Amino acid sequence: MRTFLCGRCSSPVFFENTVCVRCGVMLGFVPGELDMAAFEAGADGRWVRQGGGAGEGSHWKPCRNYSERQRCNWMIPADKEDADFCLSCRHSEATEATADPACDELVRRLETAKRRLFHSLLRLGLPLLDQPGRREPLFRFLSRKHIGGAVTTGYADGVITVDVMEANDACREARRVGLGEPYRTLLGHFRHEIGHYYWDRILSGGPRLNDFRALFGDERRDYGEALRDHYDEGPAPDWSERYISAYASVHPWEDWAESFAHYLHVSDALDTAAHWGFSLRPGVVTGGGSVEAAACSDERPFRDMLVEHWLPLSQFLNSMGRSLGHGDAYPFIAASPVLDKLCFVHDFVCASAQQPDAIRRCA
Q1: How far is 212 from 203, CA to CA, in rounded Å?
Q2: pLDDT band at 299 (very low <50, low <70, confident <90, very high)
């Protein structure tokens, strides 16, 4: 993710900030610009944009989840009288868990991770269905307390369901250890499930289905049987030679979702490194640039970007993590077949970004 500056004093600010710690001005994220902006709250509920530039003096309103519950910091143009929630929050379904004060902190963490996902989707130009009465993907946050049974995090027919207890660090870590996973994060869940969404709404009915099957396998294999085999027998001993994770070896659907999630993971990390001016090869990436933009320009193969930029960066992150007494920040092995799959995902993303109505046509 790019670096942000306060619109009033130009101090560095972060994606989740609501106030500049240096000058005290109120901050809000403007989705259409993918940028943070400074605001002064007006008596009529409208916020006036500060800091100069073309947008100075324009009127905005904070997302309802910003003004009422401090779960959000995104803004809405004041002239959108029928919109109380921002682009990200509009895609969350109201559930008993989201209304329960006891779950408030967990839901806030979920929404924070979801906004990071939406930032990635907007940056990459991936299509979203955002119409009154019909919004996809729809995020449903549930808890065992309210439904009286276990909650299964997953995707089905445009809806991404997440157990709110995934936002509890101790619970999530216990599940990670119990399942033998090297990595489990809220953002990782969202990245994985959004991969299922784009498979369902675009790829499964598109012209590249046969190419997908040649690389990932035939998704017509019985999913339930594949899942049972995985948990009964475990992954193949050589799974790391072909898959980014053991779970990816379950079924082609999961291989795609894991690869898609990994693509977003890599893309966001490279974008962040570029905007911080960080490179292990000085002169190749400069501050303020975007590795992702360069990769989408067709001037260089994406595989080259992975090998020349991501793999050295991931090795550095692991070394730094160990130096600080933590585990590897990137506990994965990206074998050659995995790089091929990431390149396929990259091509899919670039093609989908060029067809903004792709989901509307397929829905």
Answers
A1: 9
A2: low
* Sheet containing strand 154-156, strands side by side: 138-142, 159-163, 154-156
Helix (H, G, I), strand (E, B) or coil at 220: coil
- Cβ-contact 106, 114 below 8 angstroms: no
* Structure confidence at residue 102 as a pLDDT band (50, 70, 90): very high
Cis peptide before 237 (omega within 30 of 0): no
Burial class (CB in 10 A: 0-12, 13-18, 19+), 278: middle
- Residue 281's pLDDT is 64
What is the DSSP secondary structure assignment for residue 92, as one 8-state letter? B
Cβ–Cβ < 8 Å for 349, 268: no
pLDDT in tens, 320-343: 999 999 989 999 999 999 999 999
User: Whose CA is closest to 165, among 183, 145, 143, 147?
Assistant: 143
- Residue 294: per-residue pLDDT: 41
Give the DSSP H or E segment for 301: none
Among 169, 202, 200, 170, which Cα is nearest to 186's?
169
pLDDT at 283 over 50: no
DSSP state of 188: H
Radius of gyration of the CA atoms of the chain, in A: 21
Q: For residue 248, what are its two tokens?
A: 């990816």
Task: Report whether 145 contacts 98 (CB < 8 A).
Answer: no
261 C-beta neighbours (distance < 10 Å), count: 24
Asked if residues 35 and 304 have their Cβ atoms less than 8 Å apart, the reply is: no
